[in-house]
Amino acid sequence: MSYKCIHYDAETENGIPYLLGLYMNNFDYKTVVNDLDGMVEVRKSIVSGGGGVTSYTIGSRSLSRQALSASDLLKLWDDLMDKKKQLEQGRSVRKSVGVVFRDW
Question: Cβ contacts of residue 69 below 8 Å, gap of 6+?
């Protein structure tokens, strides 16, 4: 297995490095980079104590919100990083399984 050195030419406001050309031309790559950038904010809120279940009740109305746990966040982070690396190396996330020849 060979690894190639990737030189990133751009960075999000939260410090996630990315390839600008791929970011501009590949929707999946752009989505993954933006999700990783948003997860930095979520991680900061969990570390500062903003994570967990929050519920409010006013009269007969109630509202509940549940944030990601730290372990769920780490698993999601790892999955997104793997997908980002696959897209940068040019490997397709979806693999071809077979070819069906048809004679019309």
Answer: 51
CB 63 within 8 A of CB 74: no
pTM of the model: 0.64
Structure tokens at 62: 């109630």
Separation between Cα atoms, residue 23 and residue 11, nearest integer Å: 11
The one-letter code for the residue type at 2 is S
Say if CB 13 and CB 22 are below 8 A apart.
Answer: no
List, for residues 53-68, the tens digit of each pLDDT value.
567 777 778 777 666 6
Q: What is the CA radius of gyration of the chain?
A: 20
55's CB contacts (< 8 A; 6+ apart) are 62, 63, 64, 65
